[in-house]
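Lab notebook, bench 4. The sequencing result for the construct came back, and we need a structural model before the next group meeting so we can plan mutations. Quick request posted to the team channel:

Model the 3D structure of this chain.
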Amino acid sequence: MPELPNILFLFPDQLRRDFLSCYGAEFIDTPNIDSIAGRGVRYDRAYSASPLCVPARTALMTGMNAIRNGVSDNLHALRPDYNEAGIQTWPQLLSDAGYYTSAVGKMHFYPWDALHGFQYRVVCEDKLWTNIRDDYHHYLTEHGRKKMPWDRYGDYLEKKGAATTDVPWEHSWDRYTGREACRFIDNYGGDGPFAMMVGFPGPHDPYDPAVDFSERFNPEDMPDPVPAADDDPGSLRATHIEARRNMGMDLEQFTTEEKKTIRAHYAGLVKQIDHEVGEIIDSLRSRGLLENTVIIFSTDHGDYLGDHGLDGKAAFFEAATHIPLLVSLPGGLQGSVNSDLVELRDVTATILKIAGCEQPRYMDAQILPDLGFQEPPARTRIFGMLTQGWMVFDGEWKLCQYSLDGPMLFNLKDDPDELINLVKDPAYGDVFRRLSAELTKEMMQSIVLSMHDRLVAPYSLSSEDRMGREGWQWKFPADASEATKVGVDYY
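Done. Here's the predicted structure in token form:
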């Protein structure tokens, strides 16, 4: 790469890896997304350690896990004074390095119109947040339309999220987002290095593919859902069912036919996103920018789509936490497959490296392998973190601890669908104890490191004369220089 490359980060919301043909799906063809894998590296064991929208995205923005950044569910937010506490987002760091940073589509920030370091922003927010008066709202208004609240879809509740919309494809969420991404490339792509994150609102529910989009899917052609096992987390499911019941949706009765129907609708949305990816790549090509643009494709988490009798995400089953991740680097490997354990937030460390930025010491993200950079030792564990549960996965054994249920232990080599909970089998007691100890240690270390902004000083105050006098105050929040010092002495 003779000059700083452009960085394009394509980021659909709630996308399952097994609904992409480059990951082996035979019922759908996603040639434009596949082309990124063909031009680069496909990561087969990529995980979202916090498989829920806001925690996953905050970990990505900060390069820190959910305990360390303090955001472990959708009702949390990155503290507003994070800069004063010594934290910078990756867009801030790239902006300081001379990149023009752009966010198009869904970001799921609080407040929704925050910039968090992006210099250019076009907002098309979450498909369930229909009260937001974002750029997409104003676009629809100009065209005599408006967002449809989920509870006004005539069939949304009875069909478990599979919805029918009267909004044509040309005015749909993902079409708008893709078109705005192309507009940014056309207007600013030649002005110098840019870094653009494109947050497609789909294929998150409502599963509402445009009726006039050419590609439609038959429920009978969809893969069968993973059944609910006797040892699935019962309290977790009960809480999930109750939450849906409060919305007016009955998941107590969730038939295979209903699951395949939502999968067919979901596949339609995936196909629409693949089309937009092709349009964006074509914009790069037509402007002569493709050969000097890094393209990264991933998602915040997957979607159960009926697996284990659930919908959505927010637990550590593979359908939610095992994600697609593709990276195409100019001059890099082509058509390569990597099987190392990697995490979504490793994208952050990789973006910083590509941009020539030094990675702050508070980040625990790692540079992705096989991209030609000096790499740290490969990850041997994925540690999952959400408010209601924790996980450790060593590549074969997965231990999940939930606040509402007992622990769950799976061997993914022998049981890839996670149907057999081995936690009570005495033959695997040593495995359970080993993973439990590893998980406890990681959580304790993360909790300690999450307190950095409350540290009075990075050294003992026992011999500090000023501290012993009346009226002494410690400085809060720490400014960036103090946080850097803490980073050296404390992290």
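The radius of gyration is 23 Å.
Will bring this to the meeting.
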